[in-house]
Amino acid sequence: MGSSLWTLCLILASLASAAISATPRRPVAVPFGRNYVPTWAFDHIKYFNGGSDIQLLLDKYTGTGFQSKGSYLFGHFSMDIKMVPDDSAGTVTAFYLSSQNSEHDEIDFEFLGNRTGQPYILQTNVFTGGKGDREQRIFLWFDPTKAFHRYSVLWNLYQIVFFVDNIPIRVFKNSKDLGVKFPFDQPMKIYNSLWNADDWATRGGLEKTNWSKAPFLASYKGFHIDGCEASVNAKFCNTQGKRWWDQPEFRDLDAAQWRRLRWVRRKYTIYNYCNDRQRFPQRAPECSRNRD
C-alpha cells in the first residue's frame, strides 16, 4: 500500500473513531442476577433465558417487585416491559426511581390496568423533596400487552425526560430559580413492581380487580443502566459533565423531540396537573418552563 493511501486510511479511521466516541453510547444491558435483588414475595418472581428475563406475578395474596443493587445520581435508565394482558383492571405495573429518605425524590412510570378491550393508562409523576402531585396521564398509541416496549428516563442536572420507545412523552425541567425543588443530591435506586391498587387505579377505584383472572403476569427484560453510581449518602456525581447523557446537547430536547412531545400531548394526553384548576387553582411555576 502506498504511503499516501496508508495516510488516508489512518485519517479515515481516526475520523470514524471520533464519530463513534461523539455518538451517545447505548446503555449496556445489565444481567438481572448480578445487579438486582427481589424486594418481597420472592416466590412470585419467575426467571427465563438464564435469568435475563423476569416475570412478576400478582395474585389475591400478594404482588412482588425487584430493585437495583446500586444507587445512581443522574443517568439514563430503561426497561423493556410487556404489561398484564386481558382483564388487568385494578393492577399497577411500575418502573420508577426513588431515593431512600423521608423527603424523597421519585421519578415514576405507572401503568394502570383496565378491563379487556379498554386501553391501558400510563401515569407519570415526579416527586421532589417529598412533594408529588405532578401526575400526567396518557393513552399509549399501541397495545402494551402484545409485545415488549422500552420505557426510559433521562435524568441530569438540567431535566428529567420520560421516553416511550425513544419518543419523549414528558419533560420536567430544573426550575430551582423559580423556587421548585429538583432532584440533584439524592441518589436513587431503580424499582419495578406489580401490585393491586383497585382502590384508585381503574376509573378511580370503580373497577375492582377480578381475582378469578389471577395470577396476573407482567414481563420485564433488557434492564439498561448508564448512570453515575453512588452511595445513598453521596451529594454529587464524581463524573459530572463527563458522561454522554450529561453533555450540552442533552440539556434540552431538540426540535424533533419537541415536535414528538407536542404530538403526544395533542393526541394522547388525558390528564395534566398543570391544567387542573380544581386541584391547583394556582398553576405550578414549572409548568411554563416544561411548555405544559
Features:
Jelly Rolls; disordered N terminus; eight-stranded antiparallel sheet; 14% helix; 292 residues; 37% strand; mainly beta
CATH topology: Jelly Rolls
Alpha-beta content class:
mainly beta
Distance between the termini: 60 Å
Strand content: 35-45%
Number of helices: 4
Shape: globular
Helical percentage:
10-25%
Main β-sheet: number of strands, strand sense, barrel status? Answer: 8 strands, antiparallel
Whole-number total of structural domains: 1
Spell the H/E element sequence. Answer: HEHEEEEEEEEEEEEEEHEH
What's this, in brief?
The chain is mainly beta and 292 residues long. The chain contains four helices and 16 strands.
Describe this structure in words.
- With 292 residues, the chain is mainly beta.
- The protein has a single domain, classed as Jelly Rolls, CATH 2.60.120.200.
- Helix content is 14%, strand content 37%.
- The chain has 4 helices and 16 strands.
- It has helices at 3-22, 32-35, 255-268, 286-289, and strands spanning 28-29, 36-40, 45-48, 53-58, 64-68, 71-82, 91-98, 106-112, 121-127, 136-139, 149-155, 159-164, 167-173, 189-196, 216-230, 269-272.
- The strands form 2 sheets. Strands 1, 3, 4, 6, 11, 12, 13 and 15 form an 8-stranded antiparallel beta sheet that branches. Strands 2-5-14-7-8-9-10-16 form an 8-stranded antiparallel beta sheet.
- Strand 12 (159-164) and strand 13 form a beta hairpin.
- It is globular, with a radius of gyration of 21 Å.
- The termini are far apart.
